[in-house]
Automatic annotation (TrEMBL):
It comes from Solanum commersonii (Commerson's wild potato). This is Cytochrome P450. It is found in: Membrane. The keyword Transmembrane helix applies. PANTHER family: CYTOCHROME P450, CYTOCHROME P450 93A3-LIKE. PROSITE patterns: CYTOCHROME_P450. The chain crosses the membrane at residues 324-343. SUPFAM superfamilies: Cytochrome P450.
């Protein structure tokens, strides 16, 4: 590490000196701004790109009117580069003849007053259709309507009809649907891309964004090619021409004043489609906020100075003219580091487990995408169940088979029971003081004992039985009401998630909290944000010295979130302190307050520790159980014969006169098989890192102290050597099998195994079994819009809990006799 550190220090010094010299030499006088760091620059995200932020009307006038001819270009943008055929779309094109002609063409054939008026009757029809559908939904019941979805879908229809001359269905684009894909594109385009701010980093794709952008561009390209083909085929039979036809005419006539082929006009339509869709998916609540969103987009896209000029006595520069020094430094580092690694390996005679070829410095980070558990599984197929990869500077061992997992979680559990440093847990959980991320040692041991005793003991779990019954009954009642008259489509993911949040709050905090108690964004959105941030590869985890620089801006977001959660947890503790004397029974927070005040804890235990544990429980409990239930219901909807068989078992054991009780669960053998198979196929926690506390050897390969161990539960549970036809949902594979989920059988580990296994396993199993049984017993479920079972997608969204990427939508019908 010494060499790397010294190299970095040298770079920082050389670069800072270079900046200073450059400024003195050129006598640059920049506009005022906050103090910046060397390399990262003086605005958080803008790295090497000098950036001017304009925030007042008169200064805006200077840029958009007086010097409009200078600032009318757009900067390089990685997202537009990959999504829009080399930034050839109007939105991101550089200022010049190409952009000018493109804009003229669009205005003439799509945005002229005459054209806008010609779509008037189409707009009327579509808006009328939406109002009619709202009227139908409103007529009998006071139903909740997802207004954002309605507006979004109307806007998509208007855009498609105007640009493509016809409406397209979700599945025309991809099985994930328009909204999900456009949202994902927006998310990618909005994620600060290191390649935009440090141009030389674009090639390395440290964040894995380029790979995702390329995937998306393929999907959109296929869709747009299909539209063009349809138009080419139907041209002769058409009476009136739409925008695509007009562009085809221009292309074929050769009249365009610029190079105009399939790629260019695909861009034309793509740009419009995306910009108008962007407007609606931003959940704009009013026209003015729509405009603001568009302006914000303009800001994000940015303008670029085409020339250097003086405005308000400030010199505004384009991109840094001289990248040569930085390039040279980087090349030297790469060469030195590669040489150092080679020398080091030869000297130590290190024999790593097999693994893919890595790159200098970043190692294998570039091989991981948005679902790293799937990427690791693919790599393990080539390199075996004990694989070595290097994530940045961190040596990592990936385990992908049952017998190797047994070595790590049983034979050498005492060596691998620690957790590595984690930036997200560091900022969110009071310096990694929570149980999930705590280092192995007396603190973690005592914390785990305390939670097991006061929250997860059989006695405690049973004491919450009636609370669980009440909350589940309430959800079934609300579904029954929604189902009773109309064939309504229900967002089952949202229902399950909200029930799971209620159960967790009541169990851990002793009372239900409303969304606005946490923050105006609500529980689900914030917990999702925590999960997303915790799952985003943080450079600080793989290059410890980069944590301070916060190149990705993640630390700032983590700190903001931790402030919101801290205020919420402080409020809960204060409420408990105030109401302690009037309480007859004690909840988990009261018990922890007792321990803190008695001074009996065998370890330092103050308010920070209580908050870290409460945060843990909230995050660990809410997402995991909900995701497991969501996946099992997904598979039941994809396999109607399994759903029927399960309903039959429930009819026999429980009967159609009443709901399921917890005491019924032990008699429901087929339910047990369905839950096991669902948790096998869809691993809710596919990767949980462990850390080696000592040097050790496994399967005769040396493993260094400090190595990160990734047990890929997802790969273990899909190992074809153990599970025939592993991709299929076959609950019958558990007939006459004693394989269990509790960590004794290493081929099925949804809750892990050994010292760091899930302490709430028993509770998790009860919640999942009970809610699945109740939803299947009380209601029949059908897929919406005539969707076939095999069309229901199983796209995963990796996170602390890996859930469905798209919400599960289904139509319920009440089936018990006590209607
Ligand atoms: C279906 C539901 C659940 C699943 C599938 C699940 C799965 C897991 C897994 C795989 C681990 C990590 C094992 C390892 O590191 O090797 C874990 C750890 C943990 N889980 Fe769960 N879990 C579930 C529900 C819950 C609930 C309801 C809670 C709390 C109320 C909870 C609290 C925890 C905690 C605190 C840890 C960290 C333990 C440690 O590091 O010592 N889990 N869980």
């Amino acid at each position: 590490m010494a060499l790397i550190w010294s190299m970095l220090v040298v770079i920082f010094i050389v670069y800072a000196f270079y900046e200073l010299l450059n400024n003195i030499q050129n006598r640059k006088r920049y506009p005022p701004g906050p103090k910046g760091l060397p390399i990262r620059g003086n605005l958080h995200l803008l790295g090497l790109v000098p950036t001017i932020v304009v925030s007042s009307a008169d200064t805006a006038e200077k840029f958009l009117k007086t010097y409009d001819h200078i600032f009318a270009s757009r900067p390089h943008n990685e997202a537009a580069y990959y999504l829009a055929y080399g930034q050839k779309n109007m939105l991101a094109a550089k200022y010049g003849p190409y952009w000018r002609n493109m804009r003229k063409l669009c205005i003439q054939h799509l945005l002229s007053n005459q054209k806008i008026n010609s779509f008037q009757s189409m707009r009327r029809q579509q808006v009328e259709l939406m109002i009619k559908s709202l009227k139908n939904e409103a007529c009998d019941h006071r139903v909740f309507v997802d207004l954002s979805a309605k507006i979004s879908s109307l806007s998509a229809d208007l855009t498609c009809l105007m640009v493509f001359g016809k409406k397209y269905m979700d599945e025309d684009l991809d099985k994930r649907g328009f909204k999900a894909l456009v949202n994902e594109v927006e998310h990618l385009a909005a994620t600060p891309n290191l390649g935009d701010f440090f141009p030389f980093l674009g090639v390395i794709d440290l964040q894995g964004l380029t790979r995702r952008l390329k995937d998306f561009s393929k999907v959109f390209d296929e869709f747009l090619e299909k539209i063009i083909d349809e138009h080419v085929q139907s041209r002769d039979q058409k009476q009136s021409k739409d925008f695509v036809d007009t562009m085809l005419d221009i292309m074929q006539s050769g009249e365009a004043e610029f190079q105009f082929d399939r790629r260019r006009y695909v861009n034309c339509s793509n740009g419009h489609f995306r910009s108008s869709y962007r407007m609606d998916t931003n959940r704009a609540s009013s026209t003015s906020s729509c405009v603001v969103k568009l302006l914000r987009h303009g800001c994000k896209g940015g303008h670029e100075a085409a020339l250097c000029s003086s405005t308000n006595a400030s010199r505004v520069h384009g991109r840094l003219c001289s990248m040569a020094l930085i390039w040279a430094m980087l090349v030297i580092i790469f060469i030195l580091y590669a040489f150092y690694e080679l020398l080091n390996n030869i000297q130590n005679g290190k024999r790593y487990p097999p693994g893919p070829k890595g790159l200098p410095i970043i190692g294998h980070l570039h091989l991981l995408g948005k679902n790293p558990h799937q990427d690791f599984l693919k790599l393990a197929k080539t390199h075996g169940p004990l694989m070595y990869v290097r994530l940045g500077l961190v040596p990592t061992i990936v385990v992908s088979s049952a017998d190797t997992a047994e070595k790590f979680l049983k034979t050498y559990d005492h060596i691998f029971a620690s957790r590595p440093h984690n930036e997200a847990a560091y900022y969110l959980a009071y310096g990694q003081r929570n149980m999930i991320a705590a280092k192995y040692g007396p603190y973690w041991r005592n914390m785990r004992k305390l939670c097991t005793q006061h929250l997860f003991s059989n006695q405690k779990i049973n004491s919450f039985q009636s609370m669980r019954r009440q909350r589940i009954e309430l959800m079934i009642k609300s579904l029954k009401n929604e189902a009773c008259d109309h064939r309504v489509v229900v967002d089952l993911s949202a229902k399950i998630s909200s029930l799971s949040a209620d159960l967790t709050c009541l169990m851990v905090f002793g009372k239900k909290y409303m969304d606005e108690d946490l923050d105006k964004r609500g529980f689900k959105a914030l917990v999702n944000e925590v999960e997303h941030l915790a799952a985003t590869p943080n450079l600080g985890d793989f290059f410890p010295f980069l944590g301070v620089i916060d190149l990705q801006g993640l630390t700032r977001r983590l700190k903001d979130l931790s402030k919101v959660f801290d205020e919420f947890l402080e409020k809960i503790i204060d409420e408990h302190v105030q109401s302690r004397d009037q309480k007859q029974s004690k909840d988990f927070v009261d018990t922890m307050l007792d321990i803190m005040q008695s001074g009996e804890a065998e370890f330092q235990f103050d308010r920070r520790h209580i908050k870290a544990i409460l945060f843990d429980m909230l995050i660990a409990a809410m997402g995991t159980s909900a995701a497991a239930i969501e996946w099992i219901l997904t598979e039941l909807l994809r396999h109607p014969h399994v759903m029927k068989k399960l309903q039959k078992e429930l009819e026999q054991v429980v009967g159609l006169e009443r709901m399921v009780k917890e005491s019924d669960l032990e008699k429901l053998n087929y339910l047990d098989m369905v839950v096991k198979e669902g948790m096998r196929l869809h691993c809710v926690v596919p990767l949980m890192p462990h850390e080696a506390m000592e040097d050790c050897a496994v399967n005769s390969f040396p493993i260094q102290k400090g190595s990160r161990i990734m047990i890929n539960f997802y790969a273990v549970q899909r190992d074809p050597n153990i599970w025939p036809e592993p991709e299929k949902f076959l609950p019958e594979r558990f007939v006459e099998s004693s394989i269990d989920v509790r960590g004794r059988d290493f081929q099925l580990l949804p809750f892990g195994s050994g010292r760091r296994s899930c302490p709430a396993m028993q509770l998790g199993i009860i919640i999942v079994q009970l809610i699945v049984a109740q939803l299947v017993h009380c209601l029949d479920w059908e897929l919406p819009n005539g969707m076939q079972p095999c069309d229901l997608d199983v796209e995963e969204q990796f996170g602390l809990a890996t859930s469905r990427e798209n919400p599960l939508m289904a139509m319920p019908t009440y089936r018990l006799n006590n209607a």
